[in-house]
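Appendix C reproduces, verbatim, an entry submitted by the partner laboratory led by Prof. M.T., so that reviewers can inspect both the input and the predicted structure.
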Amino acid sequence: MLYYLSQFGSLLHGVSIGKALNVFQYISFRALCAGLTSFLICLIFGNMVIRRLVQLKLGQPIRSAEEVHRLNELHGGKKGTPTMGGILLIAAVVLSTLLWARPDNPFVWICLITVLFLGSLGFYDDWLKVTKKSSAGISSRLKFVLQCFLAAGITAFFLLSPSLANQAQQLYIPFIKGPVLSLGIFWTYIFYLLIIVGSSNAVNLTDGLDGLASGCTVMAGICFGVFTYLAGNSKAAFYLQIPYYGFSGELAVVSLSLAGAALGFLWWNCHPAKVFMGDTGSLAIGGLLGVLAICCKQELMLAIVGGVFVAEALSVILQVASFKLTGKRIFKMSPLHHHFELSGWKENTVTVRFWIMAIVFGLLGIATLKLR
């Protein structure tokens, strides 16, 4: 919204205040301001939100199955810690984006719809868990159906837009110049579905330790701030041999809003956590990262930048597959962070080391931009 101050500044050309207002036309400036704004929103309003969640008795239920008895011993003290803290994170992203992004950019609205849709889905899931005093929320089938519905809407937007349809169907692979193949309408939908649902659930699985998911999100948000900015700049995209989407540049504002909000939420979510983001935050974060990747045609780059999220999701898939096929478990427990906990690592040790790997994966992702 503040972008339009630059147009007001152009009317005051030659006046010092007019020159100052022109800075609002630059995506880089507005993206950095958006990140700072979302960070401050979480920092300033975090304590108030936590108190309200405590008053509503929206505490986190702890799993009680015998197979996770030892894990309950490690995390039993977290019972009653308010969940649904993702409300704060989502509000920070939405408000800072509306404040600093151009409202005439369709990609911005796709991202906001994704955050609100998946955030609402996660909120309902968390609500059921709290009210039922159980770790079981909505059914996996219903959750998947609703995620498919979102993916269908996003796919339809791209395929029904004449200027976007052809490129949307192209598959790009890191390290290779130009598209590898054209997916066609059906496989484009399947591909987008895998990206959105996969990333959403991967972040959800990662959100199991204090500060783990929010800390890893900071680096992912920064990386996609770089990717979207470059993808929306024709000269930079041509120089780096990456796909160019004119609308993508504005998503740097959304990406840094996400990074700033995650950093601000980490203030309250670090060990010992005063609040958990819950499915409200994790589903929204993962879905947003998937949509950001789609909007800058760096879908497979998400697997590199979000390497920690991928590892967490793969550990669950491998664990389930191994147990069903052989009756044996590969890990002491999945997702992966619980395996290391049960191997003797302290919770803080697991979290910080996963943050380090998130930074490494992020830097590797950025480095690949020159390896074409």
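The longest strand covers residues 170-171. Additional entries are available on request from the coordinating office.
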